[in-house]
Structures are given as structure tokens and as C-alpha cells.
Amino acid sequence: MKRLGTILASFGIAACINAQTATNTIDVNTSKLGASIQPTMYGIFFEDINFAADGGLYAELIKNRSFEFPDHYMGWKVFGNIKLMNDGPFDKNPHYVRIGYSGHREKRSGLENEGFFGIGYKNGEEYRFSVWARVPDGKEASVRVSLCDPHSMDESQQFAEQTLKVNSKEWKKYELVLKANKTVERGTLRIMHSGGGYIDLEHVSLFPKDTWKGHENGMRKDLAQALYDMKPGVFRFPGGCIVEGTDLESRYQWKNSVGPVENRPLNENRWNYTFAHRLYPDYFQSYGLGFYEYFLLSEEIGAEPLPVLNVGLSCEYQNGSERSDKHVAVKDLQPYIDDVIDLIEFANGDPAKNKWAKLRADMGHPAPFNLKFVAIGNEQWGEIYPENLKPFVEQVRKKYPDIKLIGSSGPNSEGKDFDYLWPEMRKLKVDLVDEHFYRNEQWFLSQGSRYDNYDRKGTKVFAGEYACHGKGKKWNHFEAALYEAAFMTGLERNADVVEMATYAPLFAHVDGWQWRPDLIWYDNLRSFKTCSYYVQQMYAKNKGTNVLKLTMDDKPVSGQQGQNGLFASAVFDKESNEVIIKIANTGSEAQSVTFNLKGLKSKNTYKGTQTSYSADNMDGDNSLDNPEKYVPKTSELTVNGNTMNVSIPAKTFMMYKIAKN
Fold it and tell me: Which residues pair with 405 in a beta bridge?
């Protein structure tokens, strides 16, 4: 705690951090509504890092299901009479396997998939196995499909199995449903030849039947439910750095991610090798979770979709920010601009008039997705970025004037590139600028007033990627979440400037992460929401409709000199008729606070709730074994008159909701 006091003093945040006897008087004007708060104010950002898609949110359990990894058998153990073929029915995924009789009754032919860090099976759950198959000679052949526990001490490794018979020379899709009779964290899927001659297998797939909303090509239910429970207003996807790619060939290309899932080509995931100290050479993108699925998920969780597209630049960290063959020249940008235009048609167009809109309809969604926002570029900087961005803005504005365009201020929260790009974005008249900041405790505690002096006119702010990275403890812990909560009071107070904010990254597999902290963690069977998740949820579910003026001595409560480490904001919700106050005590002592609630009547009694979020260990967080160790606690609240006296414990985030009768 002494270290925290040093940090606060160094920034002039709380000169009287230990002045516990003094009462902090905060004035809240509940009768005059301020700036409108956008429905998109708090949302989520998805990037396929940390095995967030394949092996995470995307419920497919088979790794390398179409044998298209550079090492075609990666993820598989093959044995017996088996051969890799490359003239399959799907032109973008031509590889498949041919399995035949082993040549001896006591020998076996087949293959076994390890999944993503194993395959998780739950006792009593059903799993849908599917495969495209044929018999080249037209004579019936069969395979035995088994759910296995290779580490079992039972008599048999298999604990569920069925036989699949194939008798057609034509490629057809076959399905089986297998029911697990035990829970296994690191299982496998085994396929063995069991009769007849050769049999060809392509696109071997296994999903739990119980996916989010029951979709066959669906999402893992617990992870999608966690997104829904946040009540996000905006959903940014698919990245992030994967939009750029290590090179342009490996950038995310949305057109490869739509259409029949069997014919979506494999893409390299830049996060398999970016960090040599966290190397995962088997990390690729199947595109099974593609843009159609992203749009559909946005709709189902109630969030505005916000796709990010490439601006003709590969990752500048890895390729520099000077003109070179690593980037696309302005004169050659038209295919990239067409990608943006065609995406808008895919999302919003008339299926009778546009082929991309027709594809959306053919995939199951004739109605438009009502796309309103498009981001062009991710963490770009230097002159090369606005030069490339300009023709995108011109052409999209001309054809779709109602689409809001989002540019970038680069990878840093301040400095030369940041200061250069903001004026350039205003010149181009983009609607929002995406700011990113992964910073330490000192930065977050010093930024409570960050947006107070931003220009209130024109281009708005999208805080598109941010998280508090503890100095010397770059992992999820409560203290970091508390400082994020404190910082977010400044976002809320400045809702006339900040229209979107999304924490990052979103997901991480405990056995496959490259980056932390992250919002939601999981293994093959379980998941948990971090303290940062609960902070985001408290804001997203209680964002209100209008800002209310909240001050201490006529100053915003933003950790300023003499404010005792307090950060606070207030909003009004027209729908619930509630005043909502959020206040974080970042100091090491409890603080007495008197709220003067202008606009409430002195003789009335008001009902409401108070929610407290704290932890007994500042370095602690939730875990797979204790997923609700630190969760917000809500109780009833009664306010007599127009004054509310409270004591806010040290290191605590509080929220008060008062029904304005």
C-alpha cells in the first residue's frame, strides 16, 4: 500500500489519502440531464488470440478437421493403411484421407484427433459427429467412431462409439450423435476402419449438440452466454493485429470466412509465432467462426456489429511504416476498398440486387444485419496510414453516407504518432478515432480527466483496446480492475466525446494464451469471469441514458488533488427513472462521502440498491476452481431526503442506484 501512496502522490492525485476523518462532499444534479449516452458506450472486442476462436468460442472440437495445416496430419495420430489425398470435393480445402483394411485381422487402420489441448467431454452430453465421405469403388465400407479417454484406467479407452457405414461413390455428408457417459477433460476422437475396402473422409467435425442457440456451426454455450450477460452495446471483430497479418497474405480476409464452412480456406494465425516465449505452431484459423457468425452473434447478444477491415497495410510493428512492397500502394488499393463496399452489401444489401447480400440470405439471414459502423485499419501510424485511408473514406462516403467510419490514432495513448494522427483523422472527417492503451497503474490513475478537455465537436472517441497492466504483475488481479473502474468514470462523464469503449483482449484458454490480462478465461470444460469482466458488466448494464453533473468543490471527481483517491460519475436512466452513481475509492483508507442530490425532495424517501465490489487480496482474482471468489454484492438502499451519507471502504468500487419517484 505504501507503493500505491507513492504512485498517487507522484501524480498529485490524492494529497490527503489518509485524511479519513474528513468528509468528501459530492454534488450531483439529478434534475438537469446532460449529454446523451450512446447505446454503444460499453462493448466487447474479439480477436483470435489466446485460442479465442478455434479452441475457444467456436465450439468445433476437432483441430485441423480438413487436413489443410502445412503439416497435414498436425493434430492427428495416424496408423495403419492410410493415405493423404488432394483431389477432394472442396476446391479451397482439397485434402482428405483414404483409409483401408490394415491387411491383418489383428492390425488397425485409422486416425485419432487430439483436439485443442485435448477434447472436453461432459457426462450425459451429446456430441454431433459429421464427415464428408465416399467409397471410391462404390462398395460398402465402414468406420467405427469413438469418444476416447486415452489416459483412462478403465478397461476401455472408448466410452461412446458408433459405426458409420458408407456405400456411395459420391461425396455425401454423414452424421452420428454420440452420448458421453463420463466427464473427460483431455479426451480424443478416434476413427478406425471396421469393414470393407477403402473409405475417404473429409472435413471431420465434432460439436457439442448443446451450442449457443442450438446452431450446428455454433458457439460454445458458456462463453457466448458470458458475452450476452455483459449486455454489450457494440461488438468489434475480428481484430486486432490479425486484420493486418504479419504479411498481407496472412491478413484476415472476410470473403474467405463466409459461405459453406467446408470450403472456407485455412489461414495462418499470426499469434502462433509472434511471441517466441509463448509459441503455438499449431495455431491456425479455420474461418469456421467467420463474418456471418460474427454478425449473427452480434444480433443475438444485442450488440451493434463493428467489423474491422484492412487498409492495405500489413503489421507495421513487423514491416515498418515506410512505403515498401510489404504494403499496398495507394494506386493499387481498389480491391481492398471493394472488400469494404462488398461487406456493407453483405450485411445490409438486397439479396435480389447484390451477390454478397444473396450469399447472406442463402446462409440463413435474408433480413439485413443493419450494419452502422466500419473500422478501416487497426494500429496503423505514420503518413502511410492517412494516405491509404483517404480513398476508402471518399468511396464509402459517396456510396454509403450513413455508415460511420472509424480511423485509428495508432498503438499509443500519447506521443508523436498519436499527436500526428488525430489531426489527420479530423481532416479526413472520420466519425470516430480508435484509441488504444495498455498501460500500468500510474497511467490509469493519472487519466481520470483525460477526455475533459477534448474538442466537443466533430470526430468522437472509440476507446477500442485498453486494460490496466500491473507493473511487475501483468496478469488479471482485482487492483487492476479497480483502476479500470476508476478510469471508466472519466469515459462516462465525457459521453459527449466518448461513444464506445471495449476492453481487450476478450478470451484466453488457460493452456494456450499469448497475452494477458484477459476478460474471460477457460479450459476445455469450464470458464470464469475475471474481476475486470465484472467491472465492465457493472458499467454496461448500468450505462443510463444521460450524464448527470457530479462535482466536488465544482471539479470533476477524477482523482485530483485533495479528492482522496476518489473517482466518480453519475448518469440518469430514462427507462428505469433511476439516478446511478459510480464511485471508486482507490486509496488505502475508507472515505466518508456526503452526496448532495439536487433535484430530490428533502421530505421524500427513495428506494434503490447499492452494489459493492472489493477483494481481500489486491493481487487475487477468480479462477477455474473458484469462479465466483470475487463478485459484486448488491443490497437494498434507502435514501431519506436529498442527502446520502456513505462510507466507502478502501480499494472498493461502489454503485448506487436510486429510483427517482
Answer: 374
For the segment 65-88, what is each residue's pLDDT rounded down to a tens digit? 999 999 999 999 999 999 999 999
Query: Residue 414 has what pLDDT?
Result: 95
Domain ranges (residues) in the chain: 2-37+546-659, 42-59+212-540, 76-208
- φ and ψ at residue 194, rounded to 5 degrees: -130, 5
3-17, 542-556, 602-616: lowest mean pLDDT where? 3-17
Helix then strand count (H, E) for the chain reads 12, 35
Sequence-distant (≥ 6) Cβ neighbours of residue 267 within 8 angstroms: 250, 252, 253, 256, 284, 285, 287
Residue 12 sits at the vertex; the CA angle it makes with 9 and 14, to the nearest 5 degrees, is: 70
Model-level pTM?
A: 0.95
Paired sense of beta strands 76-79 and 96-99, if any: unpaired
Residue 634 has pLDDT above 70, yes or no: yes
Beta bridge partner(s), residue 570: 548, 581
Give ∠ CA 587-592-597 in degrees, rounded to 5: 120
Q: Answer for the pair 270, 241: CB distance below 8 angstroms, yes or no.
A: yes
Could you write out the DSSP letters of every residue in 159-212?
EEEEEEEE--SS-EEEEEEEE-SS-EEEEEEEEEEEESS-EEEEEEEEEESS-G
240 prior amide bond cis, ω within 30: yes
What kind of fold does domain 42-59+212-540 have according to CATH? Answer: TIM Barrel (3.20.20)
Burial code of 274-312, b = ≥16 C-beta within 10 A, e = fewer?
A: beeeeebebbbbbbbbbbbbbbbbbbebebbbbbbbbbb
Secondary structure (3-state) at 287: coil
Q: Are 539 and 552 in contact (CB under 8 A)?
A: no
Interatomic CA distance for residues 309 and 340, integer angstroms: 7
pLDDT tens digit string along 415-467?
Answer: 999 999 999 999 999 999 999 999 999 999 999 999 999 999 999 999 999 99
Please confirm whether the linkage preceding 517 is cis (ω < 30° from 0): yes
Q: DSSP characters for 232-253?
A: -SEEEES-SHHHH-SSGGGS--
Classify domain 76-208 at the CATH topology level.
Jelly Rolls (2.60.120)
The answer to whether 420 touches 386, Cβ cutoff 8 Å, is: no
Q: Report the alpha-carbon angle 74-77-79, nearest 5.
A: 135
Would you state the pLDDT for residue 661? Answer: 79
- Catalytic residue chosen out of the listed positions 202, 268, 293, 379: 379
Give the lowest-confidence range in 10-24, 398-412, 574-588, 640-654. Answer: 10-24
Contact, 432 vs 461, CB < 8 A?
Answer: yes
Q: Is the pLDDT of residue 265 over 50?
A: yes
pLDDT greater than 80 at residue 3: no
For residue 261, what is its C-alpha cell? 464452412
Taking only the tens place, the pLDDT of each residue in 276-300 is: 999 999 999 999 999 999 999 999 9
Angle of CA points 356, 361, 364, to nearest 5°? 135
Question: Is the confidence at residue 321, as pLDDT, over 60?
Answer: yes
C-alpha 479/C-alpha 61 separation (Å) is 35
**CA-based end-to-end distance of the chain:** 42
Same fold, 2-37+546-659 and 42-59+212-540: no
CA pair distance 627, 521, nearest whole angstrom? 10
CB atoms within 10 A of CB 166: 20
CATH superfamily of 2-37+546-659: Golgi alpha-mannosidase II (2.60.40.1180)
Name the nearest CA neighbour of 595 among 188, 29, 130: 29
Look up 379 and say whether it is catalytic. yes
